[in-house]
Write a sequence for this structure.
């Protein structure tokens, strides 16, 4: 169970969720996504796909109240290898708290900017609390910060260095600010469907999938 969460909008939760799902599917994994965000970006993304080439993961919205998430996950897990939870942009939201409670792995997309770093501190505190509560349990919570929407500027590199001062580890892969990620949303797919024009973006997603599978303990 992989939960993608952040404290503020614009961090790229849905982009990370959908590209990761596309990469996992390309790696031979069967994937389902539950969209917990009231904006339903992941759901709308998948619905934009041509019926002849549907998005390579089954995407549904949260049905009912967050308290019922566990049962919906049980149903979604049938016949799939990974369930991804795309959370609302708030750590106070009941759906985010429920998704984190269900998670085996929490991924926090972080745009390398001062404002995003400040908001990430709150996410980190929440995750560390959950990790402490599960210490010694049969279901520990793994977590990582994921650089996202990275611009090739000196400020971005400086902020990425500051990220290493957090208690949570920084994933050894991230996503840059590329047109290919936005274009893939328009066609309801992932960057793998955009051909050579998105080759660099696809390589970034490949690296992301590799790092995530390492965290989950799976063979790549």
């Amino acid at each position: 169970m992989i939960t993608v969460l952040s404290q503020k909008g614009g961090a790229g939760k849905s982009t990370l969720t959908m590209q990761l799902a596309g990469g996992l599917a390309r790696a031979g994994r069967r994937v389902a996504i539950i969209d917990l965000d009231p904006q339903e970006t992941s759901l709308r993304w998948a619905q934009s796909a041509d019926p002849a080439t549907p998005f390579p993961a089954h995407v549904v919205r949260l049905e009912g109240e967050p308290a019922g998430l566990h049962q919906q996950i049980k149903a979604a897990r049938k016949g799939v290898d990974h369930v991804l939870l795309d959370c609302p942009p708030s750590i106070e939201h009941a759906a985010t708290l429920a998704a984190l409670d269900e998670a085996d792995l929490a991924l926090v997309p972080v745009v390398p900017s001062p404002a995003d770093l400040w908001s990430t501190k709150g996410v980190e505190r929440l995750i560390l609390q959950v990790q402490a509560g599960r210490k010694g349990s049969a279901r520990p919570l793994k977590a990582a910060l994921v650089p996202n929407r990275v611009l090739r500027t000196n400020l971005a590199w400086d902020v990425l260095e500051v990220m290493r001062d957090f208690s949570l580890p920084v994933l050894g892969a991230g996503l840059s600010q590329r047109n290919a990620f936005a274009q893939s949303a328009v066609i309801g797919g992932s960057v793998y469907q955009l051909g050579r024009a998105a080759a660099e973006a696809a390589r970034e997603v490949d690296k992301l999938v590799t790092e995530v599978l390492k965290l989950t303990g799976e063979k790549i």
In short: The chain has eight helices and six strands. The first helix runs from residue 13 to 26. The domain at 2-212 is CATH 3.40.50.300 (Rossmann fold). The helical segments are 13-26, 41-47, 69-76, 94-102, 114-133, 154-163, 179-186, 199-216.
